[in-house]
Amino acid sequence: DAGVIQSPRHEVTEMGQEVTLRCKLISGHNSLFWYRQTMMRGLELLIYFNNNVPIDDSGMPEDRFSAKMPNASFSTLKIQPSEPRDSAVYFCASSLGGSGFVGEQFFGPGTRLTVL
Amino acid sequence: GDSVTQMEGPVTLSEEAFLTINCTYTATGYPSLFWYVQYPGEGLQLLLKATKADDKGSNKGFEATYRKETTSFHLEKGSVQVSDSAVYFCALSGNNDMRFGAGTRLTVKP
Asked: Does residue B49 sit in helix, strand or coil?
């Protein structure tokens, strides 16, 4: 199994540009999580989908951030416009969950975003 | 809401020392408990888990026991190695919820 796949692995962009991060879930998994990790704030949950439906998006910082699941195996996290404070490592994770249950999460390798 | 509190780091030990990283939780219902490990430059990986009270999770010499009476899930290893240097996260999975602790950085010196 290929595991969770994230792209790109590194992204450097300038303030104001649009950034799109991509994630492919493990086959058969039905839950998808986006996290952000920084030295200052640690690991933060941004949004959680179950069966393509957003369950908890309370961690999404502001309207500049949006996440979608166009199909059951793929997700995007978009930042528009990007700001230097968005610089972080962004992880996605997938799991096999049931009704009201979050199973063991499998993390991708992360995307290191730098906004200049 | 549910939450996880774990011992602040960093923790620095000599090789072959005994390791304990404390983790306590607050939750309604009966959550599952996890320890994840993050090596430099990588994503988190599941280290061990326990799904009900008194269960012991173990892997790679690490152990943790789900203690409902003390709401704890402390991570232990009898003899650490340099290769165990990493950040360790305690986590719980409850009702439509997943909470991680702040992480504890462990450095093991030869």
From this structure: strand
CB B34 within 8 A of CB B48: yes
User: What's the number of CA atoms in the CB half-sphere (13 Å) around residue A106?
Assistant: 19
Confidence of residue B11 (pLDDT cuts 50, 70, 90): very high
Mutate to test the interface with A, among B37, B87, B96 (most CBs of A within 10 A): B96
pLDDT of A37-81, one tens digit each?
998 888 999 999 989 999 889 889 889 999 999 999 999 999 999
Residues in B touching A88 (Cβ below 8 Å): none
DSSP 8-state code for residue A98: B
Q: How far is B80 from chain A (nearest CA, A)?
A: 25
pLDDT in the model for residue A94: 93
β-partners of residue B77 are B19, B62
Single out the residue of B47, B23, B43 nearest to residue B100, CA to CA.
Answer: B23
Place of tokens 């809401």: B1
- How close is the nearest chain A Cα to the Cα of B65, in Å? 17
Residue B31, min C-alpha distance to chain A (Å): 9
B103 chain-A contacts, CB cut-off 8 A: 42-43
Whether the Cβ atoms of residue A35 and residue A90 lie closer than 8 Å to each other: yes
Query: A91 in helix, strand or coil?
Result: strand
